[in-house]
Write a structure and sequence with these properties.
Spore Coat Polysaccharide Biosynthesis Protein SpsA, Chain A; single chain; alpha/beta; 54% helix; 8-stranded mixed sheet; globular
């Protein structure tokens, strides 16, 4: 029994210490988001774009997006809008055509999901007489800032090959769930994405609002058909030394789930995809990072390794409490790290979300979301465990969208 206790204690110390070190690293990296250098647009329109919109039964929200896309501040002849009507059983395609965009209908019950739809669309796109310099991807529930293509054109002209735009929420105040989502995204945009961009580390892709050079897509192939096709494609890029970059100066808004059940279904899909991608790529990304001595690859491997941000929150809190209240169960792990490091990193860890909201100039009532985050984090715990044991389940679950908000309503 004594030997078993020592083994269990050793495993706990090793695990908690590893998470503590990773947490400290991530907290320090997040400080890179405390400053922002506005990147001026210096290149006139040069690049042509194929704007792809992934849609499955999106008749309720597709029209406002198409009208929004047609009014972007970019020469209309330099971009075309293609809506992937993927296994639709409603009148999405008819609405798309009525609003002057290309409706590309796909019916394949054996390959369901956004990743397969994009792969099919790209194959058709490359076979068309007209070719484009880059491909932009959105979801049907999105709205897009009018300077989007200007910013993407400028980044491409400056050498970027994969670019992610700022992700915001259309409906942050519909419920406590949507507010929790919004606060998480505001924090991530500032202290994760912008921070890594400032430090020269690779950014992650958010599934929408992304721009990819056509030449790169043809070289690599899409090859991202998991439940988290964005994470899979970004990881494949990083594995090859191609770092996705960040555009803080243009926004994409999407609709967040209002109720807990829909939210947990969506996050379960995200986590199943995360575990799946991590299991297939973390080894090669880590190996390449060590072999090539590239911090960016190691940073990406850390992201694949950790089961999302809430685990860090939990372990940071336990280490802090173990040190502060001298809880016997957590003292061995807490004592491995110096007191000043535990206290300072924990304080900074909880201060950064407040600073993120302040720096992003969100409405005052949005700060109430900080009080809701602990509860929202707790709802992640069952998702983590269930997703781990069901990670081989790659059945796509569609999130229903109903808020037909127009861009003018958001930018009032």
């Amino acid at each position: 029994m004594i030997a078993l206790k020592e083994v269990i204690e050793g495993l706990f110390i090793g695990f908690s210490s590893t998470v503590g070190i990773v947490s400290t690293y991530q907290t320090l990296v997040s400080c890179g988001g405390l400053f922002r250098k506005k990147e001026e647009i210096t290149h006139p329109p040069q690049k042509t774009f194929a704007v792809l919109v992934a849609a499955h039964n999106e008749s309720a929200v597709i029209a406002p997006l198409i009208e929004n896309l047609k009014q972007l501040d970019y020469p209309r002849e330099m971009y075309d809008i293609y809506v992937i009507c993927d296994n639709c059983t409603d009148n999405t395609a008819e609405i798309v055509r009525a609003h002057g965009a290309y409706a590309c209908e796909r019916f394949d019950a054996s390959k369901r999901g956004k990743g397969y739809g994009i792969e099919w669309m790209l194959e058709n796109l490359w076979a068309m007489p007209k070719q484009y310099d880059a491909v932009v991807m959105f979801d049907a529930d999105n709205l897009v800032e009018k300077n989007f293509l200007q910013v993407m054109n400028d980044r491409l002209c400056k050498g970027a090959r994969v670019i992610q735009a700022y992700l915001d929420s259309k409906n942050p105040f519909d419920s406590w769930i949507t507010l929790s989502y919004a606060v998480t995204y505001w924090f991530t945009n500032r202290m994760w994405q912008l921070a890594r961009h400032n430090l020269g580390l690779p950014n992650t892709l958010g599934g929408t609002g992304l721009c990819i050079e056509s030449k790169l897509l043809k070289e690599m192939g899409w090859g991202a058909t998991s439940l988290t096709e964005d994470l899979e494609f970004a990881t494949r890029c990083i594995e090859r030394g191609i770092y996705p970059t960040w555009a803080h100066d243009t926004k994409v808004w999407d609709e967040k789930p209002i109720d807990l059940k829909s939210s947990m279904r969506q996050r379960l899909r995200w986590m199943q995809g995360h575990y799946d991608v991590a299991g297939r790529y973390v080894g090669s990304v880590l190996k390449n990072g060590l072999k090539q001595r590239r911090l960016g690859m190691l940073d990406a491997a850390f992201y694949l390794f950790q089961p999302m941000y809430v685990l860090i929150v939990t372990m940071m809190s336990l280490l802090f409490l173990g040190r502060f209240f001298e809880f016997e169960a957590f003292m061995p792990a807490a004592q491995i790290l110096p007191s000043w490091l535990v206290y300072s990193s924990t304080a900074l860890f909880y201060l950064l979300p407040v600073l993120a909201l302040f720096l992003e100039k969100v409405p005052l009532k949005a700060y109430l979301g900080l009080l809701l985050l602990p509860v929202f984090f707790l709802t992640w715990l069952p998702i983590f465990f269930y997703a781990f044991f069901t990670k081989k389940n790659q059945e796509w679950s569609h999130t229903v969208h109903t808020r037909a908000i127009r861009i003018e309503e958001i930018q009032q």
